[in-house]
Structures are given as C-alpha cells and as structure tokens.
Specification:
The mean pLDDT is 94. The protein is an alpha/beta fold and 218 residues long. The strands form two sheets. Strands 3-2-1-4-5-6 form a six-stranded parallel β-sheet, with helices on both faces. The chain has a five-stranded antiparallel β-sheet with strand order 7-8-11-9-10. The radius of gyration is 22 Å and the shape is elongated. It is built from nine helices and eleven strands. The protein has two domains: 4-118, NAD(P)-binding Rossmann-like Domain (Rossmann fold); 123-217, 2-Layer Sandwich (Alpha-Beta Plaits), CATH 3.30.70. Helices cover 38% and strands 27% of the residues. It starts with a strand and ends with a helix. The structure holds adenosine-5'-triphosphate (2 copies) and calcium ion.
C-alpha cells in the first residue's frame, strides 16, 4: 500500500514537497487555489485540484478525511493558513504539518492543534549561518533548543588517536555516533577506533558541549 498525502499550497516549499513525495513513491493530492499552479503539478502529482481550502465544504468534498497526513504550505496568507488548519483539524485529519511564516503564526497553529510546525526559511538561515561561522562544522542538525547533531572534520590534532586516548565523552560530554571515512560509515564506533585525518565525525550533544569540543579538541 502506497502512503497517501495531501499538499495544500504549491509555492516553492509545497511544490518541493510534492516533487519529493512523488520521487519517494507516495501518492499525492496537490491542491492550490490558483489553477495555474495546479496545472504545473497536474503531470507530477497523483491528483492535482484547484480549490480554496478555507472553504470547508470544498475540502470535505475532496475526501481529505481519508488521508493520513496533510501538509499546509500556504505562506504569505496567514489567515488562509490558519483557517485551513482549523478546518482540517475539525474534519479529523490525523496528522497536520504546517509551514509557519513567523513565531506568532506558529503559536496560533500550535494552539489550534497543528501536529508539526515548520519554519523552513528560518531554519535554513540558521543552518547556513552556523556553517559559515565555523570552519570545522560541516553540517548541523538542531534536535531541540539545546541539543544538536553536527558533522566535524578531524584535523591533525585528532588524527592518530583513539576515542579512549581523547576521552571525548568523559571530557566534553559529547558522543561520536558515527565516523564517515571515504565511502565507508562506521556506526557506533568502538572506543579503540583510531581517528584518521579528514574523517568526518558525527557528534551528538548539547550545543554548549559541542562548542567546547570544537574549541578545545580541534
Ligand atoms: P513559497 O515561499 O513556498 O514559494 P510562500 O510562502 O511565498 O511560498 P505563497 O506563495 O503565499 O507562499 O502561498 C503558497 C501557495 O498557497 C500559493 O500557490 C497560493 O496560491 C496557495 N494558496 C493561498 N491561499 C490558498 C487557499 N485559500 N487555498 C488553497 N491554496 C492557497
Ligand atoms: P563511560 O564511563 O564514559 O561510558 P566506558 O566505560 O563506556 O566509558 P569505553 O567505552 O572503553 O568506556 O570508553 C572510554 C572512553 O572513551 C569514554 O569514557 C569516552 O570518553 C571515550 N569514548 C568511547 N567511545 C566514545 C564515543 N563513541 N564518543 C565519544 N567518546 C567515546
Ligand atoms: Ca515565501
């Protein structure tokens, strides 16, 4: 059974979700108020429909209730985004993901029961800034306000030592969950694993500890 999703709002963000879901072999109903946008996705999505999703009867007649997961990717029009989310909730959609435009928008979405609220522009901006500031951190994934997973390239200071030699967990409070080496990936490396120059260490920990590790160990 293929997974079935609905994506409402076919701007750059919603459109990209539709494309990726189709790539991942899911069934997608794509909805937009603009017939031109719908036309763009007619060949890509499983079904593409023009509808105003702030109109409850229109939403119901599309059988939205039968879909497990709906993404609301209406951006600029915050009122339409909120109203759509509210109606989806009332119809009884089990999982609703909504793109928020700002923090107030997010607060309202959470109050009315959105299961997941995403801020792609804000998060990608943070991520790029973090990557720009640090020479060592190659990539960065925020787990919560306090915890992250980062990719750090091993320099001369780390190369040739084992995890025991460096005593990383005890000294810095961070864990190396995997090591990428050429095309290999060592998941849950053993304490006796020797780090090589240019290994990519996948490190999990609090932001404070990761920062300390990056400053002191490298
Ligand atoms: P992106 O940044 O992802 O390109 P955006 O944040 O700028 O998008 P908009 O372009 O404002 O967001 O909205 C995304 C889409 O949502 C548009 O294609 C728009 O037609 C659609 N949309 C807006 N209001 C409604 C509505 N009431 N019902 C259905 N679709 C709507
Ligand atoms: P701990 O008491 O810290 O859990 P341990 O008893 O599990 O250590 P070992 O697994 O032999 O002992 O590891 C010795 C030390 O090597 C650890 O205390 C830690 O500092 C470091 N270490 C081992 N594996 C990792 C890892 N994956 N990431 C970071 N540090 C590690
Ligand atoms: Ca936008």
């Amino acid at each position: 059974m293929k997974k079935e999703f609905v994506v409402i709002g076919l701007g750059r963000f919603g459109g990209s979700i539709v494309n990726e879901l189709v790539e991942l072999d899911a069934e997608v109903m794509a909805i937009d108020i603009s017939p031109d946008r719908v036309e763009e996705y007619a060949q890509i999505a499983t079904t593409a429909v023009s509808a105003d999703t702030t109109d409850e009867s229109a939403l119901r007649s599309l059988g939205i209730r039968n879909f497990e997961h709906v993404v609301v990717a209406i951006g600029e029009n915050i009122q339409a985004s909120i109203l759509t989310t509210l109606i989806l909730k009332e119809i009884g959609v089990k999982h609703i993901t909504v793109k928020a435009q700002n923090d107030y928008h997010e607060k309202v979405l959470r109050k009315i029961g959105a299961d997941q609220v995403v801020h792609p522009e804000r998060d990608m901006g943070k991520r790029i800034a973090n990557n720009m500031v640090s020479n060592n951190i190659l990539d960065y994934l925020e787990l919560s306000d306090e915890y992250s997973i980062v990719e750090i390239r091993a320099n001369e200071k780390l190369a040739g030592s084992t995890l025991i030699d460096l005593d990383i967990r005890a000294k810095y409070g961070v864990n190396i969950v995997a090591i990428k080496r050429h095309t290999q990936i060592l998941v849950s490396p053993q304490a006796i694993e020797e780090i090589e120059l240019n290994d990519i260490l996948i490190v999990i920990g609090s932001d404070v500890d990761i920062h300390r590790f990056e400053k002191k160990a490298l």
